[in-house]
Design a protein that fits this description.
CATH class of the largest domain: Alpha Beta
Radius of gyration: 24 Å
Strand content: 15-25%
CATH architecture of the largest domain: 2-Layer Sandwich
CATH superfamily of the largest domain: Metalloenzyme, LuxS/M16 peptidase-like
Number of helices: 15
Length: 421
């Protein structure tokens, strides 16, 4: 059980406090409800660029990391399709340093053309290194564009093209900041060896004077049901072929999510999953294979990806995957197998919860989902899932017309003829 206190400041900042007297540390997470799905199709990659800008200095603090390091702390951040999260860990005795730093950059960044140009170059280089010049680097660009036609999940967090990042202006940066980086669009979690009354006092001291923003309309275009299978074949300079199959999947807040989530564990729970056991170990058709879902707040994707063995044709590899999918669709999961999957999930949750920072991050996401106490309730929801519910969700999701398939094949490099002597 993760105990916590929840309150809200008049400016809309939601504050969750999780005391833990067993540690000398404190973890602070500030989640902003803004991700790549809130971008314009003509200005993608903006949310991720902004994550970088938030470390470029604020109104009164030119170098964000320096005071935190002097206080014995460290920090990082991540951006997804749905949210952006900034977090620190530091000695609990120095907790006020985190409040000072985070409130100063929520209040006002040190906006400058120089800082913007520096961060744009960093992000564009990241785009090139990890997405354009890396083998299989553009898979999610292609797979998202294949699976989604309407919803803004159709582009990845890094953005569609580097030019979108290169063309961002300083005024657009300011507009984005004062739209989304406001206290009424943020969730702050403080976990560790802290006193709730002291945390509330610090929050009021450092954050209460920051004015709320006028949040834009949150409505997004709904992805229409996929009515027929889609296939794309790509050739590129990659060492071996790869195969990706993506089915549309329930939203994170949908009641069917828990039964659907267990499908990915049944098929792809590491080396004990059905796909690995059958297609790697027994039939030796794949060198590696994985099954997972995107965990998106809006309806996401269940993905099976694998690399066929060197002498296996892509069509044969796909047929083998579909045979395993069909086996799941035709027969209810046995009670023992389902119990094993649930036990594994419970063990993973318990291991994750041993880390203070994980508890803070999980509380922030649960609050965004509408109920911070989900961190304590979700295991029971998984426990309540029946074999029949898993079968029903498998039949709802793993339909041929609901699937998009990407074949990523190695290019046959042109050989230079050897000149005759």
């Amino acid at each position: 059980m993760i105990a916590f206190h929840r309150t809200q400041l008049p400016n809309g900042l939601r504050l969750i406090i999780h005391p833990d007297r067993t540690t000398a540390l404190a973890a602070v997470s500030i989640l902003y409800h803004v991700g790549s799905k809130h971008e314009s199709p003509e200005k993608t990659g903006f949310a991720h660029l902004f994550e970088h800008l938030m470390f470029g200095g604020s109104k009164n603090i030119p170098v964000f990391d320096a005071p935190l390091q002097r206080a014995g702390g460290e920090n990082n951040a991540f951006t997804s399709c749905d949210l952006t999260n900034y977090y620190e860990t530091l000695p609990a005795a120095n907790l006020e340093t985190a409040f000072w730093l985070e409130s100063d950059r929520m209040n006002e960044l040190a906006f400058s053309e120089k800082s913007l140009e520096v961060q744009k170059k960093v992000v564009i280089e990241e785009f090139k290194e990890h997405y354009l010049n890396q083998p299989y680097g553009d898979v999610w660009h292609k797979l998202r564009a294949l699976a989604y036609t309407t919803h803004p999940y159709r582009w990845p967090t890094i953005g569609l093209i580097p030019d979108h990042i290169a063309s961002v202006s300083l005024q657009e940066v300011k507009n984005f900041f004062y739209t989304y980086y406001r206290p009424n669009n943020a969730i702050m979690v403080v976990a560790g060896n802290v006193q709730p009354d002291n945390v509330i006092r610090l929050a009021e001291t450092y954050f209460a004077a920051i004015p709320p923003g006028n949040l834009p309309d949150r409505s997004l275009p709904t992805e229409p049901p996929q009515q027929q299978p889609r296939t794309l074949t790509v050739t590129a300079s990659v060492p071996v072929a790869a195969l990706y199959k993506a089915w549309h999947f329930p939203a994170r807040t949908h009641p069917d999510f828990y039964a659907a989530d267990l499908i990915t564990d049944l098929l792809g729970a590491g080396k004990s999953g059905r796909l690995y056991q059958q297609l790697v170990m027994k039939q030796k058709l794949f060198s590696e294979i994985h099954c997972y879902h995107t965990g998106s707040l809006d309806p996401g994707l269940l993905v099976i990806e694998g690399k066929p063995a060197h002498d296996i044709a892509p069509e044969q590899a796909e047929a083998a995957i579909l045979a395993e999918v069909d086996r799941l669709l035709q027969h209810p999961v046995g009670d023992a197998e389902l119990e094993k999957v649930k036990n594994r999930l419970e063990t993973q949750t318990a291991l994750s919860d041993t880390e203070l920072l994980n508890r803070a991050l999980n509380l922030a996401v649960a609050e965004l989902l509408g109920n911070a106490n989900l961190v304590n309730e979700e295991l029971e929801r998984y426990r309540a899932v029946t074999a029949e519910q898993v079968l029903q969700q498998a039949r709802n999701i793993l339909r041929p017309e609901n699937c998009s398939t990407l074949f990523y094949l190695p290019r046959k490099e042109r050989q230079t003829p050897i000149a005759e002597a």
